[in-house]
Amino acid sequence: MEQSIKRIDASFSVTGQIDPADLSVLAEQGFRTVICNRPDHEGGPQQPDHTAVQQAAQALGLSFAYLPVLTTGATPQQAEQLRQLLNELPKPVLAYCRTGNRSSKLYEAATQPPRELKQYDVVVVGGGSAGISVTASLLKRNAALRIAVIEPNSEHYYQPAWTLVGGGAYDVKNTVRPTAEVMPKAAVWIKASLSAFAPQRKVVLLCDGTELGYQQLIVCPGLQLAWENIEGLEETLGKNGVTSNYRHDLAPYTWELVRNLRGGKALFTQPGMPIKCAGAPQKAMYLSCDHWRKHGVLDSIAVEFNLAGAVLFGVPTFVPPLMKYVEAYKAQLAFQSNLVKVDGPNKTAWFDVTTADGQVNRVEKSFDLLHVVPPQQAPDVIRRSELADKAGWFETDPATLQHPRYPEIFALGDVCNTPNAKTAAAARKQVVVVADNLMALRSNAPLPKRYDGYGSCPLTVEKGKVILAEFGYGGKLLPTFPLDPTVARQSAWLLKATLLPWFYWQGMLKGREWFTDCKPD
Questions:
Q1: Which of 71, 137, 208, 239 minimizes the C-alpha distance to 512?
Q2: What is d(CA 18, CA 21) in angstroms, rounded to the nearest whole number?
Q3: What pTM value is reported for the model?
Q4: Which residues are catalytic, by number?
Q5: What are the pLDDT digits (tens) for 283-332?
Q6: Where are the domains of the chain?
Q7: Into which CATH architecture does domain 6-111 fall?
Q8: HSE value, Cβ hemisphere, 13 Å, CA-based, for 455
Q9: Where are the beta strands (DSSP E) in 182-259?
């Protein structure tokens, strides 16, 4: 072996990269387990793949484990994984990475004395719409519950109004409040980021190493906007005519671009599903077109809506009334056209377009205004967790919102793998299901509530009119009011622009469960 072995203690040693040929020497030296902490392909083609080392180790009767650690350092979750491996695998152990340094630090993290465990009745992961609302609803049911809410952000946003901000119909300052202001006073706010789950121990780990124990866990951190998945986008957002209503600081720039555009080409995009508020990408287009039409410049602007999918809207009932607006605004629809690259200074965007026979072609398009909706995914901490499904979303029973393998864990909001629209309205109904079911679980009673997939998408087709699309699982229409839901109405605009924001701050975040089939506050 070219690398020297550093002994940490009697049971654990570290070294740099090893080759399969080194295993016989290691076996002769008495090691019984080898752990690889170096990610495959980190050092190029000359680095042995961990599977080659594993095969050589097992051929000699040695145990082997692959626990790759990035150069940025080990996470608390990886320290927990090593702790479990050390309890299970025969000793002595030899761990290796490029130099042995990462293996040494990982062992130190795994064996340091654990911090005092903070115990709560309920831990809520996420202090967004779902997290604050379900916490308030639980405390209304039992004010004595000890609830901790994990939320790193100091500001709380009412995101549904950002589309209105981008259309010049709402003040962006009214979409944000301090998190401290909306956090239920009886809850403990843990201003930190979640690092990992340890569901076997009923514990979550924070980035600073703190562990929180729970009797029940509610997971609702929202989703993650993957701006970085579109080449060149992050460098040009907020300038060069490139904007998005999916970010608080960019929605006002959308309105600036819209009101200043007098001619040229306007591109609007929608990535593959699922995304939060599936109607928001086209709402940006409708409000922009309505402004241009009212100011007599729409005929000078070529409007194009690029959708990664094959349909305008997922619930067929609403497609015909939406198409009337698409045609009235003379917008072109480009289906199965997915934005993959942006060059802001040169006002150029590239789309991967899938043809009917499945061929994918890269198409270049120029623009004067580009409204981007980024790809969206579950947060990293969810995707790398055993609690996620194969696609990375949090695994959830679609009716009870309970995890199928850990009954003490519930989830709601955008992170769930349930096939409903990811909207604040969906979270509003899910809050009651989770709150009632969790309280029943604490009493060893049957879970009383079932979620029907309800979601609402107020489609702002013009300034002053909205098509109020309300539906559940399978596209079943679930209208709140006895009116034709396919008709654009001024009353629905009033609901969207005035009543719902007030209700959000004064009702939903305070545990008032109006129009949720529950006893009102």
A1: 137
A2: 8
A3: 0.80
A4: 277, 457
A5: 999 999 999 999 999 999 999 999 999 999 999 999 999 999 999 999 99
A6: 6-111, 119-223+378-452, 227-373
A7: Alpha-Beta Complex (3.90)
A8: 23
A9: 188-190, 194-198, 203-206, 211-219, 224-225, 242-243
